[in-house]
Design brief:
Elements (H helix, E strand, L loop, with lengths): L1 E4 L5 H14 L6 E5 L4 E4 L5 H4 L2 H6 L3 E4 L7 E3 L5 E5 L10 H14 L9
Parallel strand pairs: 1-2, 3-4
Antiparallel strand pairs: 2-6, 3-5
Length: 120
């Protein structure tokens, strides 16, 4: 497995790099991509922005709002959160298999002493 950590704190760059890797990287082995974002809200592909954010608050606090290519709910990220993506070849059977993609992270946390870490 290859590891990539970016110094960018801009969610727009980080999601663009993720998309680029999915579309153009040689995926003979998976890529585990880590990034930390400055305050931002990431919306799922089908969400209504006006239902999900407090526009006045977002503008006042200069929070970046963006959309990811996948579905799911709205997420707030800031400098206290580490985000990660597994980028692999599509085997046609892994969509929604959260354990497959979180198990390596859980195992790493166990090795660092967080024995109670688990996927719930």
């Amino acid at each position: 497995m290859k590891y990539l950590v970016t110094d960018s704190r801009d969610i727009r760059y980080n999601l663009a790099l993720e998309t680029y890797l999915m579309e153009h990287a040689n995926l003979e082995e998976p890529i585990l991509y880590f990034y930390i974002n400055s305050p931002c809200i990431i919306l799922g592909r089908n969400q209504n922005i006006y239902e999900e954010i407090n526009r006045d608050y977002v503008q006042k606090h200069q929070i970046i709002v963006t959309r990811r290519t996948s579905g799911g709910g709205a997420v707030f990220d800031d400098l206290g959160n580490v985000s990660f993506s597994f980028i692999t070849k599509d085997d046609g059977q892994s969509n929604g298999n959260f354990l497959k993609f979180t198990q390596p992270v859980i195992e790493a946390l166990h090795e660092m002493g967080a024995q109670a870490a688990e996927l719930v």
